[in-house]
Amino acid sequence: MFNLILFGPPGSGKGTQSERLIAKYGLKHLSTGDLLRSEIAGATPLGMAAKSFMDKGQLVPDEVVIEMISSALDNNPQANGFLFDGFPRTTAQAEALDKLLNQKGTEIAVVLALQVSKDELVKRLLNRGLTSGRSDDVNEDIIRARIDEYERKTAAVADYYKKYDKVELVKGEGSIDEIFDLLSKEIDERIAA
Ligand code: B4P
Question: How far apart (Å, rounded) are the C-alpha atoms in residues 101 and 147?
Answer without folding.
Answer: 28
